[in-house]
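One thing: mind reviewing this one?
=====
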Amino acid sequence: MGEKIHIEKKESKVTLVTAIISFAILSLISILFLANNINNAIVTNAISPSKGKTLSSSLHHNDGTNIEKSQGLQFSGSEEESAIGTKSSNFASVKNDSPEALAIAHHLYSTSINASNTQAKLGTPCMPELTNFIKPQKESRFTIVKPCVTVTGKVSWIHYFNDDGDANFNVVLDSPYKDMLGPGNYGQAFSIKYGVPALHVEVVCQGPVTSISPENVGACNGYKDPNFKHVLPKIGDHVMVTGRYLVEMPEMPGGITELHPAYDIKVLH
């Protein structure tokens, strides 16, 4: 009888030790599993873009990012709207190939289809050679949406001429083109400088270059034509303008859309 009790006590001790060892092993496995998950989460957050968008390399035209050749940019609806309305706290440092710039350009590529169709239907002239008179330092500020579009609207502001030789005016777009403005065109800074939201147009090398900025000095060397001085519009004129459609991020918070350079100007009657 005593021997039986001794054996049972011995078996109980073995069972207890086994249970303790099993519990310790399971606890260690759980700790290692949790630590691994935490590490993976940290690494994933560090190297992955935000949910709903992926960005890959973009091709460039004279150092201006060309959204037409940018691949892999995808947004879900709510994230796209959020990105489009983003205003950088230091907008002068926002680059032409930043996610913010590409998101705005990606949206505008779709909403400018009427301007593309108008240019194709009317065969209005496109002169990409005029971009040769924009120096790389200035070109690097631009995100190119489309190389050639045509719009119509009423002129709301003019400035002839800038110290970089450009003739500038703004166009309040007609209904088919009204969605071609960037966030910055609706912003307070734009309103203070230009008044109403409008598309900004720059006609290169129409006046003397008096600027001493490196991005302007020598930019118009060798420029001969076209001479647009005789068709530069007045405030209130209804115009048709063809040009390169782009977003300039460093200009104002949110980025503004422009035709830069303009290729063709017609005052409509």
Remarks:
- The chain has two domains: 1-48, 60-267.
